[in-house]
Amino acid sequence: MDLGLSDHYAQIVSIQIPEFNNTPYRIKKRKFNEANTQKFHFLLNQVTWQEVYGESEINAKFGAFMDVFLHCYNIAFPIKTVRMRNTIKKQLDYSRN
After folding, report:
1. 82 - beta bridge partners?
2. Where along the chain do its domains lie?
3. In Å, what is the CA distance from 16 to each residue of 13, 19, 20, 28, 95?
4. Mind listing the pLDDT tens digit for each residue in 15-35?
């Protein structure tokens, strides 16, 4: 671009910055740590498994096992809603990788 003030030309640079949304959003996740794992083991050790042993058909046996297992799993590792927030720094870090 010729500014008419010098014998040098000016440089124009156009940089596109991605749009950024700073509104928080929520995700659901489980927390897996040593304390929760120990709680899970404790809960499984407390089960008598009589409802599993009492079933004679294999699919019913598996269904009873899964019911007990998932009950303990959901107590030890509950799903929690966590607020997340986007940041420009994170977006820029991802674009460099």
Report:
1. 27
2. 25-96
3. 10, 9, 12, 33, 13
4. 887 776 666 788 899 999 999
